Structures are given as structure tokens and as C-alpha cells.
């Protein structure tokens, strides 16, 4: 494993401060939003804030340790990382418990751990190396088939957990990394065509009833206003009631009266929209836009294909989460249970997002070959 002296100025001056500051602001906004959503100021339990704070501190430590290691070292461990990914996903079938229809969590006493969150990082690291080693012959039918099999294993295991949201994240990450690696457009068109043609089969034989219901309610929330449609209706009402400047932190009417479901996790953007208004919601969107653009810049400036593909995978992960989460709170995307990066409550999620950010910083630090 390759180590670098983290205090070397030639590495430190390459750290993208904009990415670091933007992420910290988002995390602070998230902690404040969680405090409001769990009504800490009015007698609510500080449990969620404590867990999120601990995850933040652990994330900082993990990122600092990650920066000591040259990211290319992870490429050298591609096979081991891939095997660990599969074992983590398999562990859920033995040790996992079902939460909201998805058996994707492991109970660790005071906290729940979601292995698929950590596997996102491992998958990006392993798949990036897989694509890099085949970059000159990626478009052969043999290598396309091998690459598809490479991603089908984790995606299939996640689907068996009934975790559709995470499965879609992996599919999006894979597609964007394929595209960045130079896959021929004919394969992309073929994949889209195959998906469209197989849609009826997926609907009747692959999707669970609750998944079908989510899709139907997404198209028309009024079909089940007291059930599945309740989430979207209340979310849109909360965001709309915030108007331009919001009702004020800790003063959201729907939030304080418990009308917003999953308000500290999946629907925390609804809380922010109600209490901070249009201005606050747009500010959050601007922060995510800055973060994503900085990630794209690091990807373009990476010194090698492996680093570029890592950044593309992380950026794709962030992008899908942001678009899907905010989209479902305003009713333009189906409800999938995907958290808002850095903002939603969840130790596994925050730690994963911070590790992913550490990879971006790692690649950016080493975008130039250091000469002594």
C-alpha cells in the first residue's frame, strides 16, 4: 500500500477547499434540520443529533486516514474489495432485519448499519479499476459482457433485499462510469431498449406490490391520500407553506405537529423548505450544485483514468441522491427512501458520503505527479 506524507505542502496545496467548506456547510444545515425535525428544543430526544455528531467525527477521522493513502493502492486491491462487497451484501440475509419493506439493515444495538451504503464506496473503487484495465478494449462484446456481469452481482443482491432505491443508485453509478470509460453509444442505446422492452416483465414478475404502489402513487398521489400518497402530499404542502422566507427554524407548523413523515431522514428537505422557505431551499440546491461542479472539475483534472473514474462514480452517486431526494419531496420523482447526502439523518449514510468526499479530495491532491 502506498503512503504519502500528508503534511507535504505539495499535496496540501492541491486540496480543494471549496469542496470541504461546501460539505461542512451542508452537514451543519443537516444537523440543524435534524434538531428541528426531532423537536430537540421542545423536549425531543437528542439521540439523533448525538448519533449524527458521532458519525461526523468518525467521518473526519476516516477522511484524514484516507488521505494518507494513494488512491491507486485501492486499485491494487480490486479483487479483495469486490469480494468484501459481495460478502457484506450477503451478510444482510443472515444478520439483517427488515425495515420498511427492505431487508438491508443490520442491528448493532444502539445503531443500525446498512452494508449497501459502504458497498457503494467499494463498488466505485473496484469497478473503476475494472474499467481502467479494459479501457483500450472495453467495446468488445466479450468485455462488455464481463463488465455487465461484474455489476449485476451486487445489483441483484440489493434487489433481493427489496431495496429499490439503492439498486437504482448502483445502476446510475454504473451507467455513468461506463459512459466516462468510453463505452460505445450503441451499447447504451441497446441497454435502454432492452429495459423498455422488459418493463412489462419487470412490472408483473420483479416488482413487489409496495413498489408498484409507489409508482402508481407517484403518478397520482391522490390515489392513496392517507397511505402511500400521504408522504408526497404533506411534503408538497410543507414546502409550499414556507413561501419565500419560511416560517423560521423550529417553527414549521406541519413539522412541529408531526404531519411530515420521515422528516428527519428522507423528507428533511421538506422541513428545510417549510422553515427556511424558497430562499433556504434554493441555497441548499446551490450548495449541492457547487459541490457537484467541483467534483466534476477534480475528475477532469485527475492524473489518470482510475482517478477520473473514481470521481465520476462518486459524482454520479451524489447527483442521483440529490435529484431523487429533492425530486420526491416536490412530487416529480417517486418515493424511494433515498436520503439527501450530508443532510439527512443516518450514520451509515453520512459516513459513506464523507468517505466518498475523501476519495474526491484524495484524487484532487494527487492530480499532479509529485517530483522531489
Structure description:
By secondary structure, this protein is mainly alpha-helical. It has one domain (9-365). Helix content is 68%, strand content 3%. It contains 15 helices and three strands. The chain has a three-stranded antiparallel β-sheet with strand order 1-2-3. A hairpin with a 4-residue loop joins β2 and β3 (112-113). α6 packs antiparallel against α7 (141-160), α13 packs antiparallel against α14 and α13 packs parallel to α15 (347-365). The longest helix has 34 residues, at 268-301. It is globular. It starts with 8 loop residues before the first helix and ends in a 7-residue tail after the last helix. The model has no long low-confidence stretch (mean pLDDT 89).
Helical/strand content category: mainly alpha
Q: Taking strands numbered 1, 2, ... along the chain, how are they ordered across the largest sheet?
A: 1-2-3
Low-confidence stretches: none
Largest sheet: 3 strands, antiparallel
Q: What proportion of the residues form beta strands (DSSP E)?
A: under 5%
Record the SSE blueprint:
Elements (H helix, E strand, L loop, with lengths): L8 H4 L4 H21 L9 H21 L4 H5 L1 H18 E4 L2 E6 L4 E2 L1 H18 L8 H20 L3 H18 L3 H22 L2 H11 L8 H14 L11 H4 L11 H34 L3 H25 L17 H19 L7
Antiparallel strand pairs: 1-2, 2-3
Helix pairs in contact: 2-3, 2-13, 3-15, 5-6, 5-7, 6-7, 6-8, 6-14, 6-15, 7-8, 8-14, 11-13, 13-14, 13-15, 14-15
Report a brief summary of the structure.
With 372 residues, the protein is mostly helical.
